[in-house]
Design brief:
Blueprint: E1 2-6, H1 15-25, E2 29-32, H2 46-58, E3 62-67, H3 83-102, E4 107-110, H4 124-145, E5 148-151, H5 165-175, E6 180-185, H6 186-192, H7 197-204, E7 210-215, H8 231-242, E8 249-252, H9 261-281
């Protein structure tokens, strides 16, 4: 099992310093929020992209994937009634898929709740169809680039569309492209799902529809900084990895950084590796 730190946790440090700290803490790689690389990440040059990848590799890290995709450029939406805006958003999604592949990543996580919430004056059914169009374009690009595009279920406190794994899986099945999957974020799942998080993983991962996992607590802090028990979660992930149902990369994505970004990142990886060591020592 490999652990990726979501790099915005270490903002506003320069990317090279983020890599230095993440490597020193014991992370295997980064999960990158594109807006941290440039105000408009679609405008990055090939040389700049190669430079970010090389910087990570020079610190012994991989860039495993991308998340928080539609923050920049501003004004994007996969559900807007404006067809031109949706076309622009599709174009950005495709460009981010290409960016992920160029950075050496293998997955993208589509959260971006504000850019997918049902617009005023639209029905949920209309928003679903508009989102389907955009996600299908991203799925086709992901298939072409050899990466996985993951639609992230988020709690109703953040958005009113795609709140559960079951709902996201319906969209994935509707589009029917293997490069499109859903994923499980422990914080969101702990808030929105009926099943405990480890049981949710055991239920859905064997279907092949879950392409990624992010770990955090429902209180939005890092693993080990709340009530969620990660022993059962990591035990299920170990079993899923052994059976080929899980690619083995876990993104660490806290939102509330206690005591601060570096401190939260260090606590999270220490806690997770301690839990894993405990599981291994007990067979």
């Amino acid at each position: 099992m490999k652990f990726a730190l979501c790099n915005e946790v270490l903002q506003p440090l320069p990317f090279a310093r983020q890599c230095e700290l993440a490597a020193a803490m014991g992370y295997d790689g980064l999960e990158v929020a594109p807006f941290t690389l440039a105000p408009d990440p679609t405008q990055l040059t090939d040389a700049e992209i190669a430079g970010f990848r090389r910087t990570a590799e020079d610190h012994g890290l991989a860039i495993f994937g991308l998340h928080w995709l539609l923050v920049a450029p501003t004004g994007l939406s996969i559900v807007s009634p404006d067809a031109a805006l949706r076309a622009r958003t599709q174009q950005v999604m495709v460009q981010l898929v290409e960016l992920c592949a160029a950075l050496g990543g293998s997955y993208l996580v589509h959260g971006s709740p504000k850019q997918r919430s049902v617009p005023e004056g639209s029905t949920r059914e209309q928003a679903w169809e508009r989102a389907r169009e955009c996600l299908a374009a991203a799925a086709a690009a992901a298939a072409r680039c050899g990466v996985t595009y993951c639609l992230e279920p988020l709690s109703s406190r953040e958005t009113d569309l795609f709140n559960t794994v079951e709902e996201a899986a319906r969209m994935v099945a509707d589009i029917g492209v293997p490069a499109l999957r859903t994923m499980i974020d422990c914080s969101a799942a702990g808030q929105a799902e009926a099943l405990p998080v480890h049981e949710l993983m055991a239920r859905w991962m064997p279907t092949g529809l879950v392409g990624h996992v992010q770990v955090n607590d429902p209180n939005r802090r890092g693993p080990g900084q709340g009530a969620l028990e990660f022993g059962p979660i990591l035990r299920v992930l170990q079993a899923m990895e052994r059976h080929g149902h899980f690619p083995g990369i876990v993104g660490v994505e806290p939102f509330d950084y206690v005591p601060d970004g570096p401190g939260c990142a260090a606590h999270s990886i220490g806690f997770l590796r301690g839990v894993l060591q405990g599981l291994e020592s007990h067979g």
